[in-house]
Structures are given as structure tokens and as C-alpha cells.
Specification:
The structure holds 2 protein chains of 2 kinds. By secondary structure, chain A is mainly alpha-helical. Chain A has one domain: Cytochrome c oxidase-like, subunit I domain (Cytochrome C Oxidase, Chain A, Up-down Bundle). In chain A, helix 8 crosses helix 14. Helix content of chain A is about 65%, strand content about 0%. By secondary structure, chain B is an all-alpha fold. In chain B, helix 1 packs antiparallel against helix 5. The model of chain B has no long low-confidence stretch (mean pLDDT about 90). The chains are: A mainly alpha, B mainly alpha. Chains A and B meet through helix 6, helix 7, helix 8 and helix 19 of A and helix 1 and helix 5 of B. The structure holds protoporphyrin IX containing FE (HEM) and copper (II) ion. The site of copper (II) ion has 5 residues of chain A, from helix 8.
């Protein structure tokens, strides 16, 4: 029943052959050498400093939600960097290959990338940015923050959490290896039927794309279940739904979306696999297949997914604004309702991605109206943030700047989205770079919120603040880059430039493309600023140490425990009396009250099973891509066996005694006292000293 | 907004969880598993949608349609086997209430055997179709038919493995918090697969037979 393959196949290696290694490619070969040298250096350093056991014990086998979250964020940042390089390559090709007289190198007629290679670059760029950069970054933050904000010691299922991380890592590894072994898909990040069929895309590119996405979907579903169960089941006593921090609410909404929408993607991809591997006819042109079925299934997941990524970003902004406005969040209840409304409506709009399918006036109108409905809850949020800042005591530090930047981008992206939601306009600009500019505005909201959160929560996780000067430098460079790249892109969209051009035929667009190239160069500088930021901050970390409440004006539970957060989060779980518990305690002068005595607590053990399973899923994905059947069977059997063995063993966990806990807590308090002494005063964000910040400013919040 | 107004007296407020409330392991587990089943339900919903789109006359491209090969009574036999399996599982779980290990294991074994019967009938049916040259490569409509029914069968297959694992775990470990939690989640899984089978039987087999 297996399909006939074009090209060679052997039982031992499947489709794998030497000719699949692009050693003659002038871009990939040097890159490969660089990667190998880099890897040798890193591995050598780890060995030299004897850090392998540390790495294995403290990180690779951990089930601690904070460490897993940090690793998610590291994966996300690495992939963000990779995706950024792809973006740089796309922009460079487009500014170079303009008009018939433009030069060409490396075997390309115009520019430096052949059409096939260019197609792979933009496909990988899209997939990586949405699913392997934005998603892991957000999941990482949810992982770190949600359990602490609800007052829990860990996630509901710590082992499952580790498994989700390692499956995501396997997906990232799979897409990275596609650089050097075989090709990647070249038909765009969401692909089209029937061009992804084996007949038209005979290489392994589509398979890499499909299995990478399948693995991300699996990892994210597992993560989603975990976060939902944590929110529902693990809240500290007294934390009723009305007292839930807003980031937790948005995480809840986002993961409801993830849990219900990712299966649609998994089915869509599974059916593509049935077509490509078993010769089914789901999406073929002819034999009773239906091309638009694929597009529908993909976007039934795809649109909810975009809200899956933006809702946590909304939550992050909702945490940053109150802290640096020194006021409670305006309109908490409407904020919650708006998040839920967005999650609900996100299910009813998918067709706006292909109005041009021509489903008829009634269908298009219905989806157009549904799409515009999303603007209402989104607008509510924007006004709530504005009113949170209104008459607040604002501190314009770097985290706040990123959040404000996100707010502006949300307006731009939201309004252009509204324009796209009108079918009459959409018919004109569909598949133009106007669409590309729209969703980049939206996705940049997420990136801005993430960088704001990195700055905001970094001291909580690592115990010291990042350097303000370099953080601000990075912000301004990044924002200049954003303007330079995306304003011309909107204009070009109006002029009719379609997306994904590897050759730009209209020389009149040259000047716009040049400005955009300039913008991407500015982005490069902001990336450099980020590296300097990390370096400078680590170098000066002793100076920038913070106490439990790093900003002095924060409001939710995570700021009640030490920075860095001890592995058990809270020695004694807090009892929640109010929404914004910490701000309330501070206002009443009871924020420094410590628990009187400590009881034994129960913690989960580390396990190496999760990372081994992750490795096996990578092997499985690779074997499936290259059709190495024996390896598929072996790795699948190994996965099942390992899961069964683990289920027999179980994890009894271990006990930390009250006495031990007390010792660790006293130690932490002592460290904190030193930090506060060296700062002369209580760390505050604004010009206000000490506890002047009120739980609530009566004059403006009503 | 009154929700903001402080209702708790800070001087008397309870600040720490000294009464030591603990999380109920089994209910946390079953909730998580319920959430997973929700996503499994979505998976089948999507497959049904795909089947709906691909079950028009033209989807079969002039080739065989379910009306030509579905034998409703044969598939009804599968239905009965699966339902009896669920029933047997239920009896087993009833024995759990009385802490009867042997009762539970007997129920599970019966559920296992009946599940195997279901699966054997399915495989026999499929190989019969195969021998007539009807495969998922025949047409878009047949692809949808095969994938939907066989994805369900795959769920049954993994459910059967899981039943065996649970029998072994109950025999070696007895009724611990872990095994009981897993017995409950497995029951949810098994029930959901039976419920989904109802939809498969009605909308794929019966509907296909009459249209
Ligand atoms: C106010 C809310 C929004 C509206 C009204 C809206 C509307 C639209 C419409 C109509 C399209 C289709 C354009 C076309 O292809 O012709 C589109 C594309 C897109 N939007 Fe939005 N959108 C909104 C919010 C968002 C958000 C929050 C995100 C992501 C965080 C997002 C990401 C995207 C992406 C990724 C695409 C295009 C994907 C592609 O074709 O490659 N949008 N949007
Ligand atoms: Cu959309």
C-alpha cells in the first residue's frame, strides 16, 4: 500500500544518501562548518569545566517548572535568532533581485538565492517564528509564572511537563537538521494542496515540515493540558476565580484554544501524511480529493493558533502596566471576559484567510462580521490598559517601554486586520505584502510583550535585574527597525507587491525595498544590543541583585517568594485574601510577615525518562521523514516500552522536612537582607520611596 | 467596583496555609485525562468533518462506495463486542469498589477478550476489502472511510495494550493511588472510544450503507 517513490530508496537508509548532503552549497557548507566548530567548542568547554553531571542533574533531568520554563525560553530565543537570520536573507534577496538587470551569484539568475532555496528560507522562517519561537517563548513564561502566581509548588504533572519540553526540543532539532540533511519545504509555512503532494514535491522537504509541526502540536497539547489542570486544581487556598491574576486568566484562555484547536492541525497533517505515504486521496487534484479541505482544516487550527499566541502576550502586558503605573489593572472583570470572548470568537473566523476561495456572499459576509467582532474585546483591552496608565505614577523603564510599544503595534495590526476582514478590500490585497505587514505587526506585539516580560520577570527567576541602559538601547533600535521594515511593507502592499517574490519585477519598488533592508540592518544592531545586554547584566549581576519584590510595586504572588525562586516555590503556601494579594498585604503593612513554622513538603523526583523519550521522538520524526521503516518501528516500540516501564516504576517523590525548609528559608532571608542593605533603601521603581505605593488609588481607578 | 474594596480585615487575615490543604491526586489526574480526551474528541470531530466533505458521489470518483460493501450486521457484531467490553470493564470497576482484586482482573480480562474480538472483526473486514482491491488509495471517499475507521481501531489497539498493562499492575501492586487513578482514566478512555464508535457505526457504516 506504500506509495512508489521517485528517486532511490534502500531498506537500511530509506531515502537517505550522500547526495542529500548539500556540501557544495556555498551558503550551507560554510554554515555547517561553523556549526560543527561551535558545537565542538561548547561541548569542549562543558567537558573542560566538568559540567556534565551538573547539566544532567540540574537541567536535563529536571521536572522543576521554572527550569523547564527557562529551557523553553532558551529554545525559543535560539529559534528566534535562526528565524531572524532567515528574515535577513529574505530581505537581502528582495533588495538585490530587483529588475532584469540585477546581478546574480551562486547559481541564481538574480540575487544570491535560487527560487527553490528562497522558498525553503521563507517557509522555514514562518514555521519557526510562529511555532518554534513565539510558542515556546510563551509556553516557557506560562510554565514559570503560572504555578507561582496560583500559589503552587509545581505544575499538576511535573513529569509530563518535562516530556512536553523535550518533544518541543525534538521538533526544533528536526527543523534544524533539515538545513544540512536534505531540503525543507518550499511552498510556504502553511503549504498548499495539491503542491505538497508527492507528485509535485517529491523531496523530503514537505515531510520535514509535516513531522516538525506534528511534534510541536504534540508538545503544545501536552503543555496545554498541564497548564489548564494546574490552574484548575492547584490554586492556593483562598484563590477564587475572581482573585486569579490576569496572566493566569489569559493563559487559561490560550490553553483552552490550544487544547481544542491543535487536534485539527494534527488531523490535517496526518491526512497529508496519508496522502504522501500511503497514496490516499484526501487533497489530491482528482480521484475525489478536495483541495480546499486542507486549507479549511489548516486554518481551523491556524486562526485559533494566532490567538493562542497573542493571549498570553496580552496577559504579560496586563501584568507590566499595573506594576509600572502603580495602580491596579483597570477593569479586571472586563479583561477576563474579553480574553474568554477572544478565545471563543477565534473559532468562528478561519475563513477570512481565504475569502478569495469564493464561497459566496453569504459565507464571506458571515465570516467578515465574525472577524470584526474580535475587535470589540480587543478594543476593550486596549482601553483598559490606557485607563490603567491614566493618572498612574508611570515609570518608563525598559519593560514598560516594550509593553507600550506592544500597545501601539496592536493598534496598527488590529486596524489593518479590520481592513483585511472586509472581503471587498481583501480581494485586492490578499496574498500581498500588506497581509505580511499585518501579521508581522501582530506577531511583533508578541515579541514586544516577550522582551518586556524577559526584563520584568528576569530578576524573579535569576535574582538580579538586567541592565537598563542596554535594554533601552535595544528597545529603540528594535523599534526603529520595526518602523523601517514594516511601514514601507504596508505601502508596497497597497502598490500590489505580492508576497514571497524571489525576483522583484518592478524597479519602482527598489527604494522601498532599500529602506526595508536598512531596517533589517538596524534590527541586526538591536540583536547585538541584546547580546551586550546579556553580557553586561551577567557581568554586573552583583550590583543588580534584588529582594523578593524586585520592582517594589508589583502586585501578584510570584513577588512574595524569594528571588531567585527556591525550587519549592513557597515554603508555606500563602492563603489568598484579595486579588493582587501582595499589593494588599503591602498596603496594610503585613507583606513582611513570615510564616510561623514550617511543615514537611512533598516534591517530585527528577527523571531521565522525559529527555530519552524526547530523543526517541526525534529519531522517529527523522526516520519517518526519510522513510527508514525499521528505525520507525524500533523507535516507536522503544517509546511505548519506556512509557510502560515508567508507569510501573511511578514516582514516589521525596520529602523535605520542616527543619530543612526552615534552614533554607532563613538562609534566603539573610541573603535578601544583605541585598536590601546594599541598596540603601527598599527597591522601588518610581521616585517614591518605600511602601508609599497604594494597593489602590481611589481617585482614578473607578 | 466593589470587588476591589477590601472585605478582609488585614489584622485578622489568615496569611499562610497552616491548615495544610493538599491536592487530591486522583482527581487531578482524572481532570487532566479528561482534558486529553477532550482533545481526542476534537481529533475525531475533525476526522468526521473530513469524512463529511469527502462522502459526496464525486468523492468516490466512480469507484466503490460504502453502499457496495458495508455489511451492517457484521459491523453490528463489532458494536456488540465493544459494548460488552465496556460493560465487562464496568463490572470490573464495580469489583474495585469491593476491593476485590480477582473480580477486577476478571472483568478486565473479559473486556480485553471482547476488545480483541472487535479488533479481529475489523481486521478481517479490512483485509476482505483489500482482497477486493478496495484500499484507501481507491478514491478520496475511500481514504476518508478507511482513515476514520482505522484511527478508531488504532485507539482500540492501544487501549488493549493499556488494559494488559493495568492487569499486570494490579496484580503486582494492588490498589494503590496510582493504579486506581489509572484504572479510572482507562475507563474514561474506553467509554469514549465506545461512544465514538456509535458515531462511526451510524454515520459511516449505516449512513454509507443506505446512501
Ligand atoms: C483584530 C484582530 C484581527 C483581525 C481582524 C485579523 C484579520 C486578518 C485577516 C482578514 C487575514 C487574512 C488576510 C489574507 O490572507 O488575505 C489575516 C491574516 C493573518 N493574521 Fe490576522 N487578524 C487579527 C489578529 C491577528 C493576530 C492577533 C494575529 C497573530 C498574533 C494575526 C496573525 C495573522 C497571520 C499570521 C495571518 C496570515 C497568515 C498567512 O497568510 O501567512 N492576526 N488576519
Ligand atoms: Cu486569522
Amino acid at each position: 500500500m506504500l506509495v512508489d517513490l521517485p528517486g532511490g530508496w534502500s531498506p537500511l537508509l530509506g531515502r537517505l544518501a550522500w547526495s542529500q548532503i548539500p556540501y557544495a552549497n556555498p551558503i550551507l557548507a560554510p554554515l555547517f562548518v561553523a556549526v560543527v566548530i561551535g558545537a565542538i567548542i561548547i561541548l569542549g568547554l562543558i567537558t573542560y569545566y566538568g559540567k556534565w553531571t551538573y547539566l544532567w542533574k540540574e537541567w536535563l533531568t529536571t521536572v522543576d517548572h521554572k527550569k523547564l520554563g527557562v529551557m523553553y525560553i532558551i529554545i525559543g530565543l535560539v529559534m528566534l535568532f535562526r528565524g531572524f537570520i532567515d528574515g535577513l536573507m529574505i530581505r537581502t534577496q528582495q533588495v538585490w533581485a530587483v529588475g532584469p538587470h540585477s546581478s546574480g551569484v551562486f547559481g541564481s539568475l538574480h540575487g544570491y538565492l535560487t527560487p527553490f532555496h528562497f522558498g525553503q528560507v521563507y517557509s522555514a522562517h514562518g514555521l519557526i517564528m510562529i511555532l518554534l519561537a513565539a510558542t515556546p517563548l510563551l509556553v516557557g513564561f506560562m510554565n514559570i509564572i503560572v504555578p507561582i502566581q496560583v500559589g503552587a509548588r509545581d505544575m499538576a504533572y511535573p513529569y509530563l511537563n518535562a516530556l512536553g519540553l523535550w518533544i518541543t526540543a525534538a521538533a526544533a532539532a528536526l527543523i534544524m537538521i533539515s538545513l544540512f540533511v536534505g531540503d525543507f519545504a518550499h511552498n510556504g509555512w502553511f503549504e498548499y494542496a495539491p503542491i505538497f503532494e508527492l507528485q509535485y514535491s517529491p523531496g523530503v522537504g514537505v515531510d520535514y515540515w509535516m513531522w516538525t509541526l506534528q511534534l510541536v502540536a504534540l508538545g503544545t497539547t501536552l503543555g496545554g493540558i498541564n497548564i489548564l489542570a494546574t490552574i484548575i486544581k492547584m490554586r492556593a487556598p483562598g484563590m477564587t476565580w475572581g482573585k486569579l491574576p490576569i496572566f493566569v486568566w489569559t493563559s487559561l484562555a490560550a490553553n483552552v484554544i490550544a487544547l481544542t484547536s491543535f487536534p485539527a492541525l494534527q488531523v490535517a497533517l496526518g491526512l497529508v501524511a496519508a496522502d504522501r505515504y500511503l497514496g490516499a486521496h484526501f487533497f489530491t487534484a482528482g480521484m475525489g480529493g478536495n483541495l480546499m479541505l486542507y486549507t479549511n482544516l489548516f486554518w481551523i487550527w491556524g486562526h485559533p493558533e494566532v490567538y493562542f499566541v497573542i493571549l498570553p502576550a496580552f496577559g504579560m502586558m496586563s501584568e507590566i502596566f499595573p506594576t509600572f503605573s502603580e495602580k491596579p489593572l483597570f477593569g479586571y472583570i472586563t479583561m477576563v471576559l474579553a480574553s474568554m470572548a477572544i478565545a471563543g470568537v477565534s473559532w468562528l473566523v478561519w475563513l477570512h484567510h481565504f475569502f478569495t476561495m469564493g464561497a459566496g456572499p453569504f459565507v464571506n459576509t458571515a465570516f467578515s462580521v465574525a472577524t470584526m467582532l474580535v475587535g470589540i474585546p480587543t478594543g476593550v483591552k486596549v482601553f483598559n490598559w490606557a485607563f490603567t496608565m491614566y493618572r498612574g505614577r508611570l515609570t518608563f523603564n525598559a519593560a514598560m517601554l516594550w509593553a507600550i510599544g506592544a500597545l501601539f503595534l496592536l493598534l496598527v495590526g488590529g486596524f489593518t486586520g479590520m481592513m483585511l476582514a472586509i472581503p471587498a478590500i481583501n480581494y485586492m490585497v490578499h496574498n500581498s505584502v500588506f497581509v505580511v505587514a499585518h501579521f508581522h505587526s501582530m506577531l511583533l506585539v508578541i515579541v514586544y510583550a516577550i522582551f518586556g516580560s524577559v526584563l520584568y520577570w528576569f530578576p524573579k527567576v535569576f535574582g538580579f535585574k538586567l541592565d537598563e541602559f542596554w535594554a533601552k538601547t535595544m528597545f529603540w533600535l528594535f523599534s526603529a527597525g520595526t518602523v523601517l521594515v514594516f511601514v514601507p511593507m504596508y505601502m508596497l502592499g497597497f502598490m500590489g507587491m505580492t508576497r514571497r517574490l524571489e525576483y522583484v519585477f518592478d524597479t519602482g519598488w527598489q527604494s522601498y525595498l532599500t529602506v526595508m533592508e536598512l531596517g533589517i540592518v538596524v534590527y541586526v544592531f538591536s540583536v547585538l544590543a541584546f547580546f551586550i545586554l546579556l553580557y553586561v547584566s551577567v557581568r554586573d549581576h552583583a550590583k543588580n541583585r534584588v529582594g523578593a519584590d524586585a520592582w517594589g510595586t508589583s502586585r501578584s504572588l510570584e513577588w512574595m517568594t524569594h528571588s531567585p525562586v527556591p525550587f519549592y516555590n513557597f515554603a508555606v503556601l500563602p492563603h489568598i485574601n484579595e486579588r493582587d494579594e501582595l499589593a494588599w498585604r503591602r498596603q496594610h503593612g503585613i507583606d513582611q510577615v513570615r510564616p510561623e513554622h514550617y511543615e514537611d513538603i512533598h516534591m517530585p523526583n527528577n527523571t531521565g525518562v522525559a529527555i530519552i523519550l524526547g530523543g526517541l521522538t526525534f529519531v522517529l520524526g527523522f526516520a519517518l521523514t526519510w522513510r527508514i521503516w525499521w528505525l520507525c518501528i524500533v523507535s516507536l516500540l522503544a517509546i511505548i516500552l519506556l512509557m510502560i516501564i515508567r508507569s510501573f516504576k511511578g514516582d514516589p517523590g521525596y520529602i523535605i522536612t520542616g527543619a530543612e525548609l526552615q534552614r533554607m528559608e532563613e538562609e534566603a532571608y539573610r541573603r535578601e537582607a544583605q541585598v536590601l542593605d546594599s541598596h540603601h533603601s527598599h527597591p522601588v521603581s518610581g521616585g517614591v520611596v518605600g511602601n508609599a505605593m497604594a494597593y489602590q488609588r481611589n481617585d482614578s481607578s473607578k | 467596583m466593589s470587588a476591589h474594596a477590601s472585605t478582609v480585615d488585614p489584622k485578622k487575615a489568615e496569611l499562610w496555609d497552616i491548615h495544610h490543604h493538599s491536592h487530591d491526586v486522583i482527581s487531578t489526574r482524572t481532570l487532566g485525562y479528561f482534558l486529553y480526551l477532550l482533545s481526542d474528541g476534537m481529533l475525531f470531530a475533525t476526522l468526521f468533518a473530513a469524512y463529511g466533505v469527502l462522502s459526496y458521489q464525486h468523492s468516490y470518483f466512480g469507484g466503490p462506495t460504502p453502499a457496495e460493501f458495508v455489511k451492517p450486521w457484521y459491523t453490528f457484531g463489532q458494536t456488540i463486542a465493544l459494548f460488552l467490553s465496556v460493560l465487562a470493564y464496568g463490572f470490573g470497576m464495580n469489583a474495585l469498589k469491593h476491593k476485590s482484586k480477582s473480580g477486577l482482573i476478571n472483568g478486565m480480562l473479559a473486556a480485553f477478550v471482547l476488545g480483541v474480538i472487535f479488533l479481529v472483526l475489523d481486521i478481517h473486514d479490512m483485509s476482505h476489502l483489500y482482497s477486493m482491491g478496495i484500499t484507501l488509495a481507491s478514491s478520496g471517499g475511500m481514504s476518508a472511510f478507511m482513515v476514520l475507521t482505522q484511527v478508531h481501531a488504532t485507539h482500540i489497539f492501544f487501549g488493549l495494550i493499556w488494559i494488559l498493562v493495568m492487569i499486570a499492575q494490579v496484580m503486582t501492586k494492588g490498589f494503590t493511588e496510582e493504579t486506581v487513578g489509572r484504572l479510572l482514566t482507562l475507563r474514561m478512555f474506553w467509554h469514549l472510544q465506545a461512544v465514538i464508535w456509535v458515531f462511526v457505526y451510524i454515520f459511516v457504516y449505516l449512513w454509507g450503507y443506505i446512501s
